[in-house]
Structure formats: structure tokens, C-alpha cells
Design brief:
With 191 residues, the protein is of the alpha+beta class. It has one domain: Cyclophilin-like (Cyclophilin), CATH 2.40.100. 21% of the residues lie in helices and 30% in strands. It has an 8-stranded antiparallel β-barrel. A hairpin with a 3-residue loop joins strand 3 and strand 4. It is globular and about 35 Å long.
Length: 191
């Protein structure tokens, strides 16, 4: 009987172990944008589910042609969900919120955007322009899952964070007056 339960336990945990092994510990992603290039290093050890999802979307070309549709000066820039005409390009697939992973929403980190409900992140992400520790998890609420940080192009991020914004389409504010397009996002090596 013990052998049976041990076998069931091993089989139940096998997919979890395999998915964690398949996620690289520190992959790099390069965003070629209309404002310049941004390189982020992802943390596959602390946010394996988020990084696996993000890499899948990058490899599929999902982010190519999307825009930074929400820019709030001294707070963050958000992208990955809309085209230049502000047409929604959401995946529909949500992932588990990994905000309790020890990574904090500080300047230069990349985190998943989500709806009010905690497990509703899909494709949209944001880059923190300042320390935004209020977005970290608290004892009584979920936070926004950080899964990497900018290693090159923080000047580009800052430039995007200072563009003129206003209302557009379905948004009442914070949309760049001139679209800031992610021309291409891809895995990147410094070698």
C-alpha cells in the first residue's frame, strides 16, 4: 500500500518538476521599440510559472507589434496587450500569481499586470519607473508578480515614462499621444 501511494505521489509531482526544469534560470529578452532597445533578465528560479508563460509568448511573437498603452510618469510603463490602434490582443490564458517570490516592485523591475482578482495575469506587463513597494504582496492581499529586471535600456524606459499622454479609445487617460511600439521581442544572448 505504501508503494502504491509513493508511486501516485511521484506521478503527481512529475509534471511540476518537469515544468520547473524546462524554465531557464536567467533568460534575457530584448525588446526593440520605436524609442530604442530594452533588455530584461528574467528570474526563472523565483517566478518559474510567469517566466515560462512570458517565454512562450515571446517565442510565439505575441509581443511583436504591441504597444506601451499605459504610461504613468514616476510610476510605470505598461505594455503587451494592445496594438497601435488600441485593439486588445490578450491571450485569454491566466497564470497563477507568483507575487510572494521575494522579488520586490522596485525601479527597473518587470512585473505582470493583472485585473483586480489576483490570478488574472496573462500577457500584459509593466516596468517600474520608481520603487513601488506598495505593489508587493501584503498580509491581507496579493501583490503584482515581479519576474525580472532591466539590465540594459533603462534610459529608454525613462524616456517612455516621460512621453505626453492623454485619453484615447476606451482609456480615459495615460495613453501615449504617439504610439510606442514593441517592434520585436526575442530571446537574447550577450555573447
Amino acid at each position: 500500500m505504501k508503494k502504491f501511494f509513493l508511486t501516485v505521489l511521484i506521478l503527481a509531482l512529475a509534471p511540476i518538476t518537469q515544468s520547473q526544469v524546462a524554465v531557464p534560470p536567467h533568460p534575457y529578452i530584448k525588446f526593440e521599440t520605436t524609442e530604442g532597445d530594452i533588455v530584461v533578465e528574467l528570474d526563472g528560479r523565483r517566478a518559474p510559472i510567469t517566466v515560462a508563460n512570458f517565454l512562450k509568448l515571446v517565442d510565439e511573437g505575441y509581443y511583436d507589434g504591441t504597444v506601451f498603452h499605459r504610461v504613468i510618469k514616476d510610476f510605470m510603463i505598461q505594455g503587451g496587450g494592445y496594438t497601435p490602434g488600441l485593439q486588445l490582443r490578450e491571450t485569454g490564458d491566466f497564470i497563477v500569481n507568483e507575487s510572494g517570490n521575494g522579488l520586490s516592485n522596485v525601479r527597473g523591475t518587470i512585473a505582470m499586470a493583472r485585473l483586480e482578482s489576483p490570478h488574472t495575469a496573462g500577457a500584459q506587463f509593466f516596468i517600474n519607473l520608481e520603487d513601488n513597494k506598495a505593489l508587493d504582496p501584503q498580509r491581507d492581499r496579493w501583490g503584482y508578480a515581479v519576474f525580472g529586471n532591466v539590465v540594459e535600456g533603462m534610459d529608454v524606459v525613462k524616456t517612455i515614462g516621460e512621453v505626453r499622454t492623454g485619453p484615447q479609445g476606451q482609456f480615459s487617460s495615460d495613453v501615449p499621444n504617439v504610439p510606442i511600439v514593441i517592434k520585436k521581442a526575442f530571446r537574447f544572448n550577450f555573447e
